[in-house]
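A common beginner's mistake is to predict each chain separately and then try to dock the pieces by hand. The better habit, illustrated here, is to supply every component at once so that their relative placement is modeled jointly.
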Amino acid sequence: MIINLKTYPQATGEKAVLLAQTCERVSKQYDVPIVVAPQIPDVYRVSKAVEIPVFSQHMDPGAPGRFTGHTLGETLVEAGCSGTLLNHSENRMVLADIEAAVAKARNLNLYTVVCTNNPAVSVAAATLNPDAVAVEPPELIGTGISVSQAQPEIISGTVEMIRRVNKDVVILCGAGIGTGDDVAAAIKLGAQGVLLASAVAKSDKPEDVLADLVSPLKK
Amino acid sequence: MIINLKTYPQATGEKAVLLAQTCERVSKQYDVPIVVAPQIPDVYRVSKAVEIPVFSQHMDPGAPGRFTGHTLGETLVEAGCSGTLLNHSENRMVLADIEAAVAKARNLNLYTVVCTNNPAVSVAAATLNPDAVAVEPPELIGTGISVSQAQPEIISGTVEMIRRVNKDVVILCGAGIGTGDDVAAAIKLGAQGVLLASAVAKSDKPEDVLADLVSPLKK
Amino acid sequence: MIINLKTYPQATGEKAVLLAQTCERVSKQYDVPIVVAPQIPDVYRVSKAVEIPVFSQHMDPGAPGRFTGHTLGETLVEAGCSGTLLNHSENRMVLADIEAAVAKARNLNLYTVVCTNNPAVSVAAATLNPDAVAVEPPELIGTGISVSQAQPEIISGTVEMIRRVNKDVVILCGAGIGTGDDVAAAIKLGAQGVLLASAVAKSDKPEDVLADLVSPLKK
Amino acid sequence: MIINLKTYPQATGEKAVLLAQTCERVSKQYDVPIVVAPQIPDVYRVSKAVEIPVFSQHMDPGAPGRFTGHTLGETLVEAGCSGTLLNHSENRMVLADIEAAVAKARNLNLYTVVCTNNPAVSVAAATLNPDAVAVEPPELIGTGISVSQAQPEIISGTVEMIRRVNKDVVILCGAGIGTGDDVAAAIKLGAQGVLLASAVAKSDKPEDVLADLVSPLKK
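With all components supplied together, the output reads:
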């Protein structure tokens, strides 16, 4: 389970640290792996504060040297990240840059999650051999209408199509997931995990929401 | 004087902190204001380690909430930044986004430096009322050939043209600046400061280079 | 008056030619200059069919040679265009590219209309010395709610602010303009012309709509 | 064989028509299919002048309606195009847009050629089921150093990797191809055709160059 903090004010700066610590507590209590993805300026302070994996929300494919303002993999490693989202629908990437970023992240031992918008794009992403692909229909992101309940065929179709070209890539889904039932439905459809944001980041009681979300994954 | 650390390996992570501390020592010793602009994942750790101003290399204009992977002003403030570069030639921005970012930074009390590539673009940028405009001919960036010596008319022309529309904006120049003589030439041409990168970030002896650079600005 | 045909199906291919001929008839009958801006693949066939000015909807700043897929000024001239829109809100450009495109168009005797989203951006655009600036609040584009009636202060503010830095640039406005009254209101607020799209391109009776629109401009 | 006219001045406007007619003559004389890809403002006049297939250099994925300045498939069809290049290295596209453009072109019966920069990206593109994939190492484009002679493993590797996921897609290669020997080498390595530009578009004697190029393909 990956919690994307996006740019929510409730999940920025010191509040990102507190939310990451909440994720860590729930992760330990229920023995379910939780990853947190804070904003890029926050990755260092969050990774210093928790032991659960911290992912960046984006990584550029460039090489050290120039590229003012770009977010390089080398710098993310130094900042304590162990992985990164790529190609999120709010930050889409050129195909060749996704390939270059995945290849570079692999050399740096950064875990890569390529976000995609439909089954066909998911298959293309899967052939680049990232660690995970996360399919998220953009029209459901942030709506509270769960992809696993509203568009189950997106998940099952993606799983089936990806497995024809890549047996190993982890398949995640996201968009509108907010409850343990949504997670259970996703797992039943063949997803191996979920990517979510607002349900946790915007909640007044994130610990309760997280506890509900991880319940179907509890060992 | 603004030191852009770009993505140089010699200026990443802990090394960015060390270089910022060097800038701070020289700034205090010579009583010359020096600003350091580390990579975005490094802004928090650098701003915790030094008292000189820390600028981001980029800021997106979006609002808190969505915008996964974007770098918002609110988050930069929380991370300890007091300003940001915008529209660097390695990270150029759409015109409406520059305007929106400058307006938003103003509300957040973040100092804005809009980078530009020639006098005409500098004038357009100056009308947006950022705190500073930094003209940098892209063909000289990283070359070691100083704009103030090789293309002095760029600086004097920019100063003259900007002053017709904006009396107050600080005018900086950059590209290829590496010595105190380059800085002195820039100041003589009407620039009020310089923006530089490789001369310091790639040097084996950044403290000596900085001491030479600030010598014409010493009070 | 500039009629932007966007990518409306009613204004594509042969239908773009017919609509341009309608514009031409109205232009001659009422002695009001009308410019038509068809889609880029249509500029040649439209410019062969009418004598009124044909503008491109976009122009890239690149030089002849490489740049596969780009729309160069030289090619627009060969295709019979006499001008181009730049930086439309549906096709926003990097600041330095707007400047380069305006400068290049000037050398090619192409008339330039830089589209902008608010008064501050309009002033920045005006300092680049295009032939015209067209302010269009994006939130009103295509709504049928006229900028000149719903947000008159956008137009009057833009005119006032632009005139401080540029006495000569033609000032247009757009967004939601659909009737002669909207045009009259715009002219009264200080605009020298209008840029519009859906009211004409989507109409069943474009000739009647155009006749109404030009009535306040009739000599 | 696809001849990309890029934005060469020797292949713009009326000269694009003349060059397309030359391609048509050689195509008929040697009974080898040749496709010509002129600049977007030139597609209509070229398609009116020749019977060989005319491809656009780019197509955007948007739908009819708004999207000022975009190049829609519907408009390309009306302009006489029978196909389009996508994602050329000089005009790279976001992954989701490539998928959307390929799907839309399929509905419009437009032939799609997705350009790619290496074998891994070629495989990803092939899973989107375009009609063809054209691998072109960017560092060789326009150099006159033929990919088929300088980097034969790029072609053979691409062919082998693509065939694991897609049996049907046509595999082309490009970059630096200028002679019949280069074409013969490409075919021998498993390519089914070539994409080239400068060798023909910049030649003083394009008919002779074309005759040499097609000689290995002659039936």
